[in-house]
Design a protein that fits this description.
The protein has five helices and three strands, in the order H-H-H-E-H-H-E-E. By secondary structure, it is of the alpha+beta class. A three-stranded antiparallel beta sheet has the order 1-3-2. Strand 2 and strand 3 form a beta hairpin. Helix 3 crosses helix 5. It is elongated and about 55 Å long.
Length: 118
């Protein structure tokens, strides 16, 4: 119980948020249909060869202001975790190119190698 009664203290809020931030698979599982649709459309239209890009840049390129950048990132993370539907990025490989707390995650997106079974 916090010292301020029923309201959490700032330390309790930070502790809770830090714990959630470390819970990558749970956040990835929260992907949305809008996020999936924007990423799939981006892949269909712009991925003929390797592309290194941020979620924010995908949103801008697809003129998808109605979709949160976080939803695009969650869709890509969910793809890495194998949590997305089979149709999502079926012929596309996704990996994290860079991901640190100081810089936005960049995604490496490229057509799947024809010799690799997915």
């Amino acid at each position: 119980m916090s010292k301020t009664g029923s309201r959490p203290t700032p330390q309790e809020i930070l502790k809770k948020n830090r714990a959630h931030a470390q819970d990558e698979p749970t956040r990835a599982a929260d992907f949305t249909d809008d996020g999936l649709d924007v990423v799939q459309a981006f892949a269909d239209e712009h991925v003929d060869e390797q592309v290194i890009i941020t979620s924010k840049r995908i949103r801008k390129r697809m003129d998808a202001d109605h979709v949160l950048v976080e939803d695009i990132g969650r869709a890509l993370s969910a793809s890495l975790e194998g949590l997305t539907p089979a149709w999502f990025l079926a012929d596309i490989e996704v990996s994290r190119w860079r991901g640190t707390r100081q810089a936005a995650t960049k995604w490496q997106i490229e057509p799947a190698d024809s010799e690799v079974d997915r």
